Fold:
Amino acid sequence: MAKSEKVLLKIEGPIATVTLNRPDKLNALDAEVWLGLEEAADAIKGQPEVRVAILTGAGDRAFSAGIDLKAVASSTGFSLGRPLRDGFDSLQQMKAIFNMYENLAVPVIAAINGYCMGAGMELVLACDIRLASDTAILSIPEITFGVIPDMGGTQRLPRIVGPGKAKELIYTGRRIDAAEALRVGLVDHIYPKDSLMSEARQLAEEIAAHTPAAVQGAKRAINVAMSHSLEVGLTYETATALSSMGTAETFIQGAEAFAQRKA
Structure:
């Protein structure tokens, strides 16, 4: 378990489930949630038996309504409890915690169970695969508050849905339902609310059944593809393939086993 009660970590065999646990606040992100996310990611890093992680929100109303604006506006401000200069350094520190989920060795599946807004949506953009309930509502509304998305939205959203659709969603702050999110490629699958987590776990089990080194190497290579040239990506792919393949004998054994399953 993570230390923070606002973020729960449950590890069952090869699957870790990270749950934002403020259902009475629609799982809004305050400083303690950010630190809980950091603790959970660090804990997963220290558990080599974990092969896949699922990220979701408690309750059935929301994945996360975004940053807790009341916490931001409070007299104590919004601090992660570390000495930093205001502004750039503070935002970079918060963003780095989201980056941890993008950079975890294992694939991360977002199970979006309801409202997914602002920083909540920016968090799921850092995940590998996004599943949504049929009741999900997604939005990146920062522009309506007079600011730009600052937790990775302007960078990750265009890579997922393309620059035109990303600009439309960011410039308008419009809310879209699960069907529209699926149509534009923001989510990968939609399921009935009551079966979302079982479907997420089934997908996680399917991924976990494969060789961890291969899955994790593929994740690293795909991440490189999203931020580098094709030439760099192809070179990285070759190096990763060679490092994860092991000996020629191991590769041949794996190929023979696959052929036998197909026969």
Observations:
- Residues 212-262 form one domain.
- The longest strand covers residues 7-12.
- The chain has a mean pLDDT of 90.
- The CA atoms of residues 249 and 255 lie 10 Å apart.
